[in-house]
UniProtKB/TrEMBL annotation:
Keywords: Membrane, Transmembrane, Transmembrane helix. The chain crosses the membrane at residues 12-32, 44-62, 69-94. This is Uncharacterized protein.
Length: 105
C-alpha cells in the first residue's frame, strides 16, 4: 500500500512538472507578435527546453529509483529553483556573451 501511494505521488508530481515544461514549450513556439527572425533566441529556447527535459528525466528516475518520501517534494523544489536560475540568469548571460561575440565579427 505504501509503495503504491508513493508511486502515485511521484507520477502526479512529475506529470505536473512535465505539463509545465509543455506550457513553456508551447509559448516559446507560438508567437503572437509580428514575426521577427531571431535565430539566437530560437537556439536558446530550444537549448533551455532540452535542458528542462533532461533535468526532469533525471529527477523522475532518481525519485522512482530511491523511493524515499522526501524526494518528490525536495526534487520538485530543486528542479524549479535550478530551472529558474538557468532560465533567468545563465541563459540571458550566455546569450549576451554570444551576441557580443557576433557583433565583434
Amino acid at each position: 500500500m505504501n509503495n503504491n501511494s508513493y508511486n502515485i505521488v511521484v507520477h502526479i508530481v512529475n506529470l505536473i512538472l512535465l505539463g509545465a515544461i509543455g506550457f513553456i514549450a508551447f509559448f516559446s513556439v507560438v508567437n503572437i507578435s509580428p514575426p521577427i527572425q531571431d535565430p539566437i533566441s530560437d537556439m536558446f529556447s530550444f537549448g533551455f527546453l532540452v535542458f528542462l527535459l533532461v533535468m526532469w528525466t533525471v529527477n523522475y528516475w532518481f525519485q522512482f529509483k530511491k523511493k524515499k518520501w522526501i524526494l518528490p517534494m525536495a526534487g520538485t523544489v530543486f528542479y524549479i529553483a535550478i530551472a529558474l536560475f538557468v532560465g533567468g540568469v545563465v541563459m540571458p548571460f550566455l546569450r549576451d556573451i554570444i551576441e557580443a561575440q557576433l557583433l565583434l565579427h
